[in-house]
Amino acid sequence: MHRDTRIQHHGEDRERSLGSVGPPIYRTSLFTFPDCASFEKAFRGGRERHLYSRVSNPTVRVLEEKLADLEGAEDAIALASGMGAISAVLLAFLGSGDHLVLLSKAYAPTLSLARGLLRRMGVEVTFLPPEEVGDLERHLRPRTRLIYVESPASITFEVIDLEAVARVGRAKGIPTISDNSWASPIFLQPARLGIDMAVHSGTKYIGGHSDILLGVAAGRRDLLERVRSTAILLGASLSPEDAFLAVRGLRTLPLRMQRHGESAFLLARQLLVHDRVAEVLHPALPFFPGHALWKRQFSGSSGLFSFRLRGDVRRFADALGIFRLGVSWGGFESLVLPSALVAAGCAADDPRPDIPPDLIRLSVGLEDPGDLWADLERGFAAL
Ligand SMILES: *Cc1c(COP(=O)(O)O)cnc(C)c1O
Fold it and tell me: Whole-prediction pTM value?
């Protein structure tokens, strides 16, 4: 069956819920038992009987089964936020004296976690620049426990050769992780390239409506079991209400991704030839450095990209009406984020000197692309 058919039905047992077409929201913190024998059986495991919603919940499980199927992975875990998933993954495998290889242009809070908490725990971290991914092997140490990348990289969109990363990880027996939030499982399934685990901020495209926080880890079952038990102890569990909204988001994910991708590519091409634009950072543009690799490993591009403005970024952003200023991305609404503003906000503990001050990130939403271009032209006119 085609993915677009499975996404509507996989993981849902409608006979068990009176034929209800959507999954019931099991809004309960605990599950009760009529006798000691069934109570004991639930304790001994098996996800068939749920015990406590921090550990497992049937509505959350529907979402997890759908996510595993979409990722082409053995299993998936849905958690309270993307950072909840990323923290659980890193803390599940790293301890004092261990070594982590982390892409230097990963999502900023992931870098903060490595620089702060992980280092305080005694974990050694190598921040690997995107241009050195080809030399990954040279950066490994006897106690390297994880290789963590993100493709494309946050803000500047360098495309990472995930197959090459997976090959090194497999050869050395080191689990490989990739943040797959940008592509969503619709445009990239890291498991199919040999990556052991994908993580997501499901807050972005999977939720898609800017009304939930969600984290996902999907991949090898043996690794996920360690992540799951860590996440349970960290208390990063997803609420059944948000799991329901995520299932609802998934039903339109293929349609939304197509529209986000087409509109963003259209705007990127128009920006490319604008005399107020110095550079457009979008992997689907033919002259972008990672374009050939993107074409080989991804089946589409999403709605998030950046460009460098010749002019005052504040004046440009202030003149926009449809594109609103905000962090995050991946929702129905278009957003603009001048990187200089973010850099200023993070200056104290999170300097990111490698991001050009004239960079503007756009999250292209589901509005009419003609209206969005007219909005950007208002920005240019204000310069
Ligand atoms: C937003 C984001 C995260 C963190 O997800 P939250 O749901 O906000 O915790 C992780 N990775 C990337 C690439 C992101 O953009």
Answer: 0.96
Does the C-beta of 207 come closer than 6 Å to ligand 1? Answer: no
Domain 253-381: which CATH number of 2.30.42.10, 3.90.1150.10, 3.30.565.10, 3.20.20.80: 3.90.1150.10
- How do the domains of the chain map onto residue ranges? 3-251, 253-381
For residue 144, which of 177, 104, 99, 102 has the smallest C-alpha distance? 99
Q: What is the pLDDT of residues 323-380, one digit of tens each?
A: 999 999 999 999 999 998 887 765 455 545 578 899 999 999 999 999 999 999 999 9
Quote the ligand 1 centre to 81 CA distance (angstroms). 8
Nearest-atom index, ligand 1, CA of 150: 13
On whether the CB atoms of residues 114 and 87 are closer than 8 A, the answer is no
Answer whether 180 contacts ligand 1 (Cβ < 6 A).
no
What is the whole-number distance in angstroms between the Cα of residue 270 and the centre of ligand 1?
28
